[in-house]
Write a structure and sequence with these properties.
Elements lengths: L1 H36 L32 E9 L6 H17 L3 E7 L2 E8 L1 H14 L1 H4 L5 E6 L8 E5 L16 H4 L2 E3 L1 H7 L5 E5 L3 H4 L2 E3 L7 E3 L8 H7 L1 H7 L3 E5 L4 H16 L7 E5 L2 H8 L6 E3 L1 E2 L6 E2 L6 H7 L41 H9 L7 H4 L11 H7 L27 H4 L6 E4 L8 H10 L4 E8 L6 E9 L2 H8 L3 E3 L6 E2 L4 E2 L2 E6 L25
Helix pairs in contact: 2-3, 8-10
């Protein structure tokens, strides 16, 4: 009955309140001793911020929140074995349903291997959304660490909710049967105080598993005589397995305790599991253990509001843009700056204007296209807009090239029994053929040659460059230029185009579904109702001897050429 349900809800709320009170008392007692052990004043450590919200009640909203403020929530949850195709669709639908019910906005990625989201809502609605996920699948989401920040200014609130269906939560190119097992190989989680203490130890290395442009504005700096910081110099996450497989990297990690860190923890889950799988498969390459900071840099900086061993800012992928230690002054932050404007070289640590590196990668011929820093001086902003070819990231300036050889992950999994007799992968549940490929219908698509250029077909004759650009933007993909494909003899357009994307990552995101959902203006009428129109999308690598991009005379036109 309704009365029984109401009583159950009141009892559950009371139980959560009592559990929070008990947890708070225990933390107060533990906090002082932790600060003393680390040789820090009690105000330098916020022990409660280091604790995961997994398998415990979420913290109650603070009292007297600013009017109109919102709560931001970051969380990820891996699923092993992966969701089946049917379960994956059900998860997508359920998260959409809950986001609509609780007025949640933001963006997320949903893959067969799990869910990763950055969301905003009111303080109460956000918590209701998290509890609803736990009610839907308690075996999975009870163990999720929902990282909440209340009192966020209203201008940082997302306006819409977008959940993308993807093959992989983090773009390591470790999707499908290449994914290492988290159950067997994931690294050990250390809470922020333990992680801080581990940085003081010798025979320890610490790896920043973020992209280089993120590391440029902030990173850990362990104390002298402690851990050695290693920078994989990644343009994208796909570079990490190749860097980890390089002999010189293995020499640096061998017989060391290996620490890893990233923004919120999700990248470390796969990265630590990858390293542990490699050492498990290669007896001659061993470490003393692999650890990660629970909750990533985000939790560390809340635990050490004066910064601890962190220098600079934590690059964020939401409207906050960056995170700094709460108790550090502006003057202290200025002294931490080591990054610089790519044009005038003035110290600067803000990414503004979506400027991208114009350098080319000799190994592939593709544009680098990672974000670059351009300072707020008017002459630099003008030059970046007028002459984007002058913009180069620090890696391109130094001519750095990523190692090219990736580890044989499927072979390692066979050796370790993670692909069972009969060919079933324990991580994904997929069957693996003798040659290492899956029986998945998308396998041939996944093994296409990746390129920054895409072929888009079956376009309506009413298409324009602006409409295509808006269609890609709806899928969170940035289109750099459109080049219409015309008949060689007549010069007429018959519905195809080459689309040069802003980066390889944008191209992969756009190509992943296999087709592009065309924006509203393209919708065609069906039998009494409007139907969504899709255009097939495929990678279109530049052929040997082909001139690309085309000459100025063939630069982008708003309308495709039509036969007169």
């Amino acid at each position: 009955t309704m009365d029984d349900k109401r009583k159950e809800a009141v009892a559950a709320k009371k139980a959560r309140k009592e559990a929070r009170r008990t947890i708070r008392k225990a933390l107060d007692a533990e906090s002082a001793s932790t600060a003393h052990e680390l040789g820090l004043p009690p105000t330098a450590v916020e022990l409660s911020a280091s604790k995961s919200n997994a398998n415990r009640p979420l913290p109650a909203p603070p009292e007297h929140l600013p009017s109109g403020s919102c709560t931001i929530c970051l969380f990820y949850q891996y699923k092993e074995p992966s969701w089946t195709a049917r379960e994956h669709r059900a998860a997508l639908n359920k998260v959409h349903e809950l986001a609509s019910r609780y007025n949640v906005a933001g963006r997320g990625r949903c893959a067969p291997e799990g869910l990763n989201c950055t969301l905003t809502a009111s303080a109460n609605d956000m918590r209701a959304f998290c509890y609803a996920l736990r009610s839907w699948d308690p075996n999975l989401f009870d163990g999720t660490d929902f990282k909440l920040e209340d009192g966020v200014p209203p201008e940082k609130r997302f306006r819409t909710f977008t959940l993308r269906k993807v093959d992989e939560l983090v773009g390591y190119a470790l999707d499908g049967v290449k994914a290492p097992s988290l159950h067997r190989h994931s690294g050990r989680h250390l809470e922020a105080p333990e992680y801080h203490k581990q940085m003081q130890e010798k025979d320890t290395v610490i790896i920043d598993v973020r992209n280089a442009y993120e590391s440029d504005i902030g990173r850990f700096k362990p104390p002298e005589g402690g851990a050695t910081l290693l920078d994989p110099k990644m343009r994208t996450s796909k570079d990490f397995p190749k860097w980890l497989n390089a002999p010189e990297t293995k020499d640096q990690l061998k017989n060391k305790t290996v620490m890893m860190y990233c923004t919120g923890g999700i990248r470390c889950e796969r990265a630590t599991a990858l390293l542990n799988q490699i050492t498990d498969a290669e007896p001659e390459f061993q470490t003393k253990g692999v650890v990660m900071v629970r909750g990533g840099i985000e939790r560390y900086l809340k635990t050490f509001p004066e910064g601890g061993y962190w220098k600079g800012k934590n690059y964020l992928f939401d409207k906050r843009m960056e995170q700094a230690p709460a108790k550090k002054t502006e003057e202290e932050m200025e002294r931490d700056v080591e990054s610089a404007c790519c044009l005038c070289q003035k110290p600067f640590s803000h990414y503004r204007g979506q400027h991208k590196c114009a350098g080319n990668l000799p190994s592939s011929g593709l544009a680098c296209a990672v974000p670059v820093i351009v300072c707020d001086a008017e002459e630099c902003q003008d030059a970046a807009t007028r002459e984007p070819h002058r913009l180069e990231c620090p890696l391109c300036v130094k001519g750095y090239q990523t190692p090219e050889t990736a580890p044989d992950l499927v072979g390692q999994k066979r050796k370790l029994g993670l692909i069972a007799r009969g060919g079933t992968d324990v991580v994904t549940g997929q069957r693996v053929a003798a040659g290492g490929s899956t029986n998945d219908a998308n396998d041939s698509q996944q093994h296409q040659s990746v390129s920054q250029r895409l072929f888009v077909g079956k376009l309506p004759l009413t298409v324009t460059a602006s409409k295509l650009r808006r269609s890609f933007e709806r899928s969170d993909c940035k289109l750099e230029s459109v080049h219409w494909i015309v008949d060689r003899s007549s010069g007429a357009f018959y519905g195809s185009a080459y689309c040069h994307m802003a980066s390889v990552e944008d191209a992969q995101r756009a190509q992943s579904p296999g087709s592009l959902v065309l924006c509203q203006e393209f919708r065609k009428k069906g039998k009494g109702r409007k139907q969504q129109r899709r255009a097939p999308v495929a990678f279109a690598p530049v052929r040997e001897g082909e001139v690309w991009p085309p000459s100025e005379s063939l630069s982008e036109m708003e309308y495709p050429p039509m036969r007169s």
